[in-house]
Design goal:
Layout (H helix, E strand, L loop, with lengths): L5 H9 L1 H23 L31 H37 L1 H16 L2 H11 L4 H27 L3 H8 L4 H9 L4 H24 L11 H8 L8 H28 L1 H6 L1
Helix pairs in contact: 1-11, 2-3, 2-11, 3-4, 3-6, 3-9, 4-6, 5-6, 6-9, 7-8, 9-10, 9-11, 10-11
Amino acid sequence: MKPITNRALRVLVRHRAAMGALAILVLMCLLAAGIGLVSRHSPSEMNPDRILQRPSGSHWLGTDDLGRDIFARIGYGGRVSLAIGLAAVALAMAAGVPLGAVAGFFGGWTDFAISRILDVLLGIPSILLAILMAAAMQRGLGTLILAVGIVGIPQFARQVRGSILSLREQDFVQASRALGASPLRTLWREVLPNALGPIIVLATLGVGSAVLTAAGLSFLGLGVETGTPEWGAMLYEGRRAFRTSPHLAIFAGLAITLTVLAINIFGDGLRDALDPRAEKKA
């Protein structure tokens, strides 16, 4: 089974909200990738004579309390925030998918042991677990990715486990076993490819959740190093002058909101497109 069939693709293309969200995501990615071509300012360049300026022709979104160009910092911050989201989800998938697949396919004590570990992790609020991990390690981009990624492991493992449980008794699995294929080969070649649809949807939605969690940690002072252009850190820096210069925090907040909202809307559209019932209607 292909994770995205032609029918599913047609359903997704006809989903106007998902296509609008995808357009916003593309624009955000283009801004992050090409900010150096759009803005002539450096995100770390300080200008003491341009502190807390309002949006103008020379500084499209104004400057912060150190005279740094906010538009440039939003663009470069997009690189950091999106990279954190993608890397954290990749880490969560790399660990969660194999754990869930092994637990669901082999069952027994293997399933019991893995499920109990996941229950412990799921019993702790995700943001609290991320805060504890980030606080226990040295601040930095790697620490932020590790903390956010580990928080996402149980969600992937549970999703994959549930999908594998519903697939392992199907006829094509029994046929693979009858042909003499090893359990690992059957799991890898036959079962797991049929569970890719839910994994793709969860990964898409997980990027938005990871970006939001990373921004929250940075806002609490547990994320990236001081001075790094990252949206959550910009919110933290902007709170000090919010009454007199609200644009410091507003633009960073809008960047987070638009990105996370667009990812969630696109993820919902992708979930609808990959729903077998939606394919039958297409």
